[in-house]
């Protein structure tokens, strides 16, 4: 943070608005007021981030056991992520014309057009040149990103340079993924604020981002199309099984361990009782061994 203060005029202005007006002590110049406000805001952010970790861990462990696809809404700060969550779910999450209006991931249940449930998580915004201390803090909130089945990457189409925002966000995502040594979830680009974007910029974006969906969280335009794209991309690739695999089917048991995520395993007189999430094709081969209360597709 410290190293940013000298060149933070633009930020300072937004932060001042966010802090609620431009009081400013007597004799303080505008830039001094801004710097003081940023300092206050950042120490508040640091405290709040510390408190979030525990709640997040609880939320995440719950989700691992859920069959619902999880979609994380990511994007540059102020792109309209929270507005999009509201447009998709009617959640009533805080929306503000301010940097870092959202300080912790918010998860809501939603439905695809065919009625299948999903969980949608609104995340903390990204910026370029985030001070090192804060990168660390925010990165931990981005664990949500690593666990997602799909990333809905929101871009502000009314920004002067949406392409730069996209690159900055992708850079942060790839760093987060590299830290977790995981595979990046698929990404769906969503250009938001088309009601406010210029025709020229929209034309450039349509040309440069052929797979993107164009929406306005404000007017609702494109939201249904977005829902349909999300449903296509977040189709579950695995299924929950609860089976007893006989001891002479060591081959199947080995495949469950190799290709699936085992939640519980115990040996009984009939075979190995196993609860796991496995690829849909393997679930079909296991169907014959389903337990009475277990379910296979
Ligand atoms: N014109 C227009 N403005 C929008 C649209 N969506 C969001 N906004 C405005 O953009 C600003 C930021 O919206 P948020 O939803 O808080 O953005 P965010 O990405 O969650 O921001 P952070 O949580 O701060 O990272 C607010 O002033 C919104 O009213 C839209 O479709 N059109
Ligand atoms: Mg937000």
In short:
The protein is built from ten helices and nine strands. It is α/β, with parallel strands linked by helices and 297 residues long.
Overall description:
With 297 residues, the protein is an alpha/beta fold. It has three domains: 1-65, no CATH class; 66-233, P-loop containing nucleotide triphosphate hydrolases (Rossmann fold); 238-289, no CATH class. The chain is 43% helix and 20% strand. It has ten helices and nine strands. The protein has helices at residues 9-19, 30-64, 81-89, 132-141, 143-147, 162-180, 199-208, 223-233, 250-259, 280-286; strands at residues 70-75, 106-111, 117-122, 150-156, 187-192, 213-214, 238-246, 261-267, 271-279. The strands form two sheets. The chain has a six-stranded mixed beta sheet, sandwiched between helices. The protein has a three-stranded antiparallel beta sheet with strand order 7-9-8. Helix 1 (9-19) packs across helix 2 and helix 2 runs parallel beside helix 4. The longest helix is centred in the N-terminal third of the chain and has 35 residues, at 30-64. The radius of gyration is 23 Å and the shape is elongated. Residues 1-25 and 60-65 have low confidence and may be disordered. Bound molecules: guanosine-5'-triphosphate and magnesium ion. Guanosine-5'-triphosphate (GTP) binds at residues 75, 77-83, 95-102, 125, 192-193, 195-196, 216-218. Guanosine-5'-triphosphate (GTP) binds next to helix 3. This is GTPase HflX. Residues 14-33 are annotated as: Disordered. GO terms for molecular function: GTP binding; ribosome binding.
